[in-house]
Design brief:
The complex is a heterodimer of chains A (about 450) and B (about 450).
Chain A (H helix, E strand, L loop, with lengths): L4 H11 L6 E17 L2 E19 L2 E7 L4 H15 L11 E2 L17 H18 L3 E19 L3 E20 L2 E11 L11 H17 L1 E2 L3 E7 L6 H8 L4 H4 L21 E4 L20 E6 L2 E2 L6 H7 L7 E2 L8 E2 L3 E4 L6 H6 L3 E13 L5 E13 L2 E7 L2 E5 H7 E4 L4 E9 L2 E9 L2 E9 L4
Parallel strand pairs in A: 4-6, 8-18, 9-16, 15-22
Antiparallel strand pairs in A: 1-2, 1-5, 2-3, 5-6, 6-7, 9-23, 10-11, 10-15, 11-12, 13-14, 16-17, 17-18, 17-19, 19-23, 20-23, 21-22
Chain B lengths: L2 H16 L2 E17 L2 E19 L2 E7 L4 H17 L30 H18 L3 E20 L4 E19 L2 E4 L2 E5 L7 H15 L3 E2 L3 E7 L4 H9 L4 H5 L20 E3 L22 E5 L2 E2 L6 H7 L7 E2 L7 E2 L4 E3 L6 H5 L4 E8 L13 E12 L2 E14 H6 L1 E4 L10 E2 L3 E9 L2
Parallel strand pairs in B: 8-18, 9-16, 15-20
Antiparallel strand pairs in B: 1-2, 1-4, 2-3, 4-5, 5-6, 5-7, 9-21, 10-11, 10-15, 11-12, 13-14, 16-17, 17-18, 18-21, 19-21
The chains are: A alpha+beta (about 450), B alpha+beta (about 450).
Chain lengths: ~450, ~450
């Protein structure tokens, strides 16, 4: 899928025909595949293609966006004219001559999803099923799936940029159900990266399967979590989802430009404990949230958001930069051509600190160790958030003791940032899917273990 | 003959040669979205979409593939991929999967009435969704999210048994989320609307309610931990229905994932709880004359005086489990077939909201689930611990807003503990149609 430059230029000129001061075109051809093994049988195979273009016009701070599935010259020009005529009444201008940005990927891909032998893929999935069943006879069901996506995009804009990019994603996921002494529980886990699927030959899928079974079994005997304010030690890797939700979204210019973020007007001010440095990095090789260029054709960057507690940068896309004056960070992202891009996170994490995990545990008299976080949400206007704890333990007298279930963490982002009092030296990243205005996109979250001195834990009243 | 039909006939011909059966689901439509921010037009989006999803059946196995390119060449390639996928799948079943035979369906022409509305009028609705909030109260400093949408959607299903059904509808929707500030205290809440006629849109009402809800949250305090009686507001009870949504699926029952497995005909909820699935209820957004494999829709009783009366089925699982075929196949072009309810309608009782709130000395009026289901519901066990907000009532008097608490329990226990049901329905705009519901006791963790 390469649309010829002269066609893109014609469409861009059509977009600029009624007074828009900027236009861009995002063309996409995406192959997706989903294979599922359910109860030791190949249960599901779906493949498909997304094929379309989104054309965006700026009239000052106003955005006009249209989409089409017709990628012919006539189709693209017609869509661009419709967009232009829907709003504009001004004078026409011409786009700059298109100059191709060399395609230079920092990521390495192996066999494309449609090239790889399916037997190899099913071998991984069947392996997960077998390892889970062998782990414990209480397993009643195992579902394992492989989701692959290969996206090819072409972007051109009226400033003369023309760029091409390829993004591959692969994620293997599993869910297991167990029943023990009449109690049913379930647990899930996944592995994957921005890249192709050969990586699973190197990943310990046995450990993945057994870990999920063990966690589900643990829950069959766990008591409900207690309720109240207490110190909470949040584990590394996916524990970073809390920062992502509670703070990261508030740093996106999508919210900042509307004055709807609690972080508005706080640039260069102290917004967190000095032990907190936070980074949003779009450049990590084969990183889950990495991109060579963002969905506006801008090169992605490594952006320090918070340095030693001080706010250093927002997460800025084209329109965000226009509205706020801050420099673009290469953060314009979207799920597909069906969505106009918005400022979004990439690989967002709290940087490693100096504390040792064991010492952090020892410092807690009574609290919660949130080893695995589950789902959650944030109110973007206020920063109020909530998160499920998928695997949690009570810390008593400096020791991690019994497992508890049903715990939920509740707080306000900016308050919690100030209460992170210790950050360990063991940084890990994990994969997440982030949903917001421009759709659901892969975004990595991460952190070292952090100690929040006091956090509201929702459990069950006794 | 139209292009979709003539292209499909070529697929059906190929399927016959391959000894396969084929079904094509085509969905798409047009959508217009307009949003204002800081009293200026911020975004104007116009999208057209179309996608074809193919299901190819080879005996007991089914393969799927989809594409947005509806040319003959692309559809034939996609068919080949679906056929290949059907060969990959090995369910181990022997009974062939059937396609739905052509049958008459209820015409619902009232749902597709496109109107010629001037663009200025649509822009004005979008503008007012922000403006009226800002004008209403000086504590509303900002409306971070507001927007107007106009949608035309269609769904067409063709299969190699000769079935060809099409359904179109058009509607308007919108939302506004004002942010209210009082000193350092800020709260955001909002309101939405859903209308099938443009003239039914009432921006004053929507914005008035949005502002009222945001202001009502200011000054919220924490709730002491304990067990309380609770009235789940009619606008929030849909979240409870979402919890049990998948349990009705015969497929989920068959796979052992549903907590309703083995409970058909048993009284597992309060006798105050009556629930039907009604695909013809036009207040609901899941209205449809036929399901996603083309079978004519029908009403299905789910709970009658607390007794679980039916599972929901598609043709495959009705045959497999020897159940009545309730026509609840559910899928989009890019997903495999599942089974899901349409509009879930809870029968009303005879109590006003105020009467329910005065039922006990202390009652929590639960007015918001803060994170939706993924913030604290476990489908495999029915356990929930949901962050929530609302108001504390003492002897029927509102003692003020409360927040940052977690309501915990088990959804089956909650259904058993329904003590009374209100007489008024929630506003249209989703597929859950329900009144206020009083639960006698639930655990609340707060301060």
């Amino acid at each position: 899928m390469i649309i010829q430059p002269h066609i893109l230029s014609k469409a861009l000129d059509a977009a600029l025909s009624t007074g828009a001061d900027f236009a861009d075109i995002f063309v996409e051809d995406t192959y997706s595949s989903q294979l599922t093994v359910l109860n030791s049988k190949a249960d599901q195979a779906i493949v498909g293609q997304l094929y379309g273009a989104g054309i965006r016009l700026f009239f000052g701070h106003e955005i006009v966006y249209v989409t089409t599935n017709d990628l012919s010259e006539a189709g693209l020009v017609k869509a661009a004219l419709n967009a232009a005529q829907s709003r504009g009444t001004g004078a026409a201008s011409k786009s700059m001559p298109l100059m191709q940005v060399p395609f230079d990927s920092v990521h390495t891909f192996g066999e494309k999803p449609w090239e790889m032998n399916r037997d190899r893929k099913f071998k991984w999935l069947n392996g997960i099923d077998q390892h889970a069943r062998a782990r414990n006879s209480a397993v009643t069901q195992v579902e394992a799936g492989l989701n692959e996506k290969f996206q090819r995009v072409q972007i051109a804009n009226s400033r003369g940029l023309m760029a091409y990019d390829e993004r591959a994603y692969s994620r293997i996921r599993m869910q297991t159900f167990v029943e023990s002494n009449g109690v049913k529980e379930s647990s899930a886990d996944d592995e994957g990266h921005m890249g192709t699927s050969e990586v699973y030959d190197q990943i310990d899928l046995k450990a993945l399967a057994e870990g999920a079974v063990d966690r589900a079994m643990l829950l069959t005997t766990a008591a409900y979590a207690p309720a109240g304010d207490m110190p909470v030690l949040i584990d590394n890797a996916f524990g970073g989802v809390l920062f992502h939700e509670a703070c990261g979204h508030g740093l996106e210019t999508t919210g900042v430009a509307k004055d709807s973020s609690v972080f508005c007007g706080k640039m260069n001010q102290k917004i967190a404990h000095e032990c907190v440095t936070a980074i949003d990095d779009g450049t990590i090789e084969n990183g889950w949230g990495s991109l060579n260029m963002d969905d506006e054709g801008n090169k992605t960057k490594k952006t320090t958001l918070i340095e030693n507690g001080v706010l250093k940068s927002y997460i800025v896309d084209e329109m965000g930069s226009r509205q706020t004056g801050y420099e673009i960070t290469g953060s314009g992202r979207r799920q597909s051509y069906k969505y106009a891009p918005a400022s979004r996170m990439r690989n967002t994490f709290i940087a490693a600190g100096k504390d040792k995990f064991e010492e952090m545990v020892r410092d807690v008299d009574y609290g919660l160790y949130a080893k695995r976080m589950g789902g959650g949400s944030v109110n973007p206007g206020t920063g109020d958030y909530n998160f499920q704890v998928a695997e949690g333990y009570i810390i008593r007298n400096g020791r991690i003791e019994e497992a508890v279930k049903g715990a939920c963490l509740i707080g306000r982002g900016i308050d919690t940032l100030g209460k992170i009092t210790k950050v360990s030296d063991d940084l890990k990243l994990a994969r997440g899917m982030c949903g917001s205005v421009s759709g659901t996109i892969p975004a990595a979250v991460g952190q070292p273990q952090v100690l929040v001195s006091s956090l509201m834990v929702g459990g069950r009243a006794k | 003959m139209d292009t979709i039909k003539s292209n499909f006939q070529k697929l059906a011909e190929q399927a016959r040669k391959d000894g396969a059966k084929v079904e094509m689901l085509v969905t798409g439509g047009e959508a217009l979205s307009i949003g204002y921010s800081k009293r200026k037009l911020e975004s104007f989006e116009s999208t057209q979409t179309q996608m074809a999803g193919l299901r190819v059946i080879l005996g007991a196995n089914q393969g799927y593939a989809y594409t947005e390119n509806l040319s003959e060449e692309s559809l034939l390639r996609t068919y080949g991929e679906a056929l290949n996928n059907a060969k990959t799948v090995q369910t181990g079943e022997t009974k062939p999967v059937e396609l739905v035979k052509p049958q008459a369906v209820k015409a619902m022409p009232e749902l597709f009435k496109p109107e010629e509305i001037a663009m200025e009028k649509k822009l004005e609705v979008a503008r007012l969704l922000e403006e009226l909030c800002l004008a209403k109260d000086s504590r509303v400093t900002n409306v971070p999210y507001s927007g107007f949408n106009e949608s035309v959607v269609f769904k067409r299903i063709l299969n190699s048994e000769g079935l060809d059904q099409e359904f179109k509808q058009n509607y308007y929707s919108g939302y506004t989320y004002p942010l209210a500030k009082d000193g350092e205290n800020s709260k955001m809440d909002g309101e939405g609307f859903f209308a099938r006629k443009f003239d039914d849109i009432n921006t004053a009402e929507v914005t008035g309610e949005g502002v009222r809800k945001a202001l009502a949250r200011l000054g919220a305090t924490q709730l002491p931990t304990g067990n309380y009686a609770v009235v789940i507001d009619r606008e929030q009870f849909p979240t409870v229905l979402q919890m049990i949504h998948d349990y009705f699926s015969a497929k989920e029952v068959h796979e052992g994932k549903s907590l309703f497995k083995g409970k058909l005909g048993q009284k597992i909820a309060s006798d105050k709880f009556e629930l039907i699935d009604d695909p013809f209820e036009t207040r609901g957004t899941a209205v449809r004359p036929f399901d996603d494999e083309g079978a004519p829709s029908q009403k299905t009783v789910l709970f009658d005086k607390g007794v679980l009366k039916n599972y929901l089925s598609n043709l495959e699982y009705a045959n497999k489990m020897n159940l009545p075929h309730t026509a609840h196949a559910s899928r989009g072009p890019a997903s495999q077939q599942a089974i899901a309810p349409t509009n879930m309608v809870v029968a009303t009782g005879d109590k006003s909201l105020q009467e329910l709130l005065a039922a006990y000395d202390k009652v929590i009026h639960l007015a918001g689930f803060e994170g939706g289901l993924h913030a604290g519901f476990k489908q495999s066990t029915g356990d929930f611990s949901m962050p929530a907000s609302g108001f504390l009532y003492e002897k029927g008097q509102n003692k003020g807003p409360i927040e940052q608490f977690v309501m915990s329990g088990n959804v089956l226990e909650l259904l058993r503990d329904i003590e009374a049901v209100g007489r008024d329905y929630n506003k249209p705009g989703n597929s859950f149609i329900c009144p206020d519901v009083l639960i006698k006791s639930l655990s609340f963790a707060g301060a």
